[in-house]
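To fix ideas, we reproduce below a protein record of this kind.
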Amino acid sequence: MKKLAVVAFGGNALLRGNQKGTIQEQEKNANDACQSLFALLKDDYNLVVTHGNGPQVGNILLANSAGNDMYGVPDMPLDVAVAYSQGFIGYIIEQQLTNEFIKRGINRNVVTLVTQVVVDKNDPAFQNPIKPIGPFYTKENADQVVAETGAIFKEDSAGRGWRKVVASPRPLDINNKQLVEKMVREGNIVVTAGGGGVPVYHTEENTLKGIDAVIDKDLASSLLAVEIGADELYILTDVSKVCLNFNTPEEKKLDTITIAEAKQFIEEGQFGEGSMAPKVRAAVSFVERTGKAAIITSTTALNVEGEGTRIVK
């Protein structure tokens, strides 16, 4: 049986901080990201691709607000904005990967699935928003938005500015996970759980309803990888290895760390909550529940031998 890997692209792999977010920019970035997948495809892996949506969903909300202010177009709630971002980002990834398959003479299907992910409506995260979305602001601009909208902003731990933060409840279940596993084991590339999935909860009547939140895509990817029996989890970011004392003279790149070491480093505050900490937690969760390895690395280093940080039991 072919190995099954879940590969989680970061939202910034498709829209970078110095870009406006044009479709041409995002298509080029998606194509670059998809090139990295061939390191696994040439080894005959079955692949599920997930992705972030922080920059994109933030821009969707800005566009919603502008449309409401100028033309009275009703604002859409955050869960709908997440679904919107899943659709268009999945479309871009699906198209760029399909184009690469055609160029290389590879006959494989790519399918995008808009995914609902179940959360607890009483999750404590709703009382403590920490998930960053949208662009970076200066302190002055952030204060202005807070005054106008009541949004909550927090300073980025890497010193890149201020970003709006929203609730990020823990994912409990991935809808249609059996279908995802069936499709991927049949050889299809499945793009799913984008942006962590559309956050939904069960009402008292046992029906699903959307809720105003953004689920951490790495935790959702980790849960999905467990539920479909993945052999490996790859979390792609903008650095080739996880580092201690990041961006200081004492910076140390990590090759392989155990679950216990990873938890210790998190406890010591080595990893920023708005950047690396959620990725390490997601990797730890996967390894704890499966005994298999998780790898954190950059998109460009995915096919480079010796790159990446492996988290093992």
Q: What stands out?
A: DSSP finds eight helices and 17 strands in the chain. The mean pLDDT is 91. Helices lie at 23-41, 54-71, 78-104, 139-149, 177-185, 217-227, 259-267, 276-290.
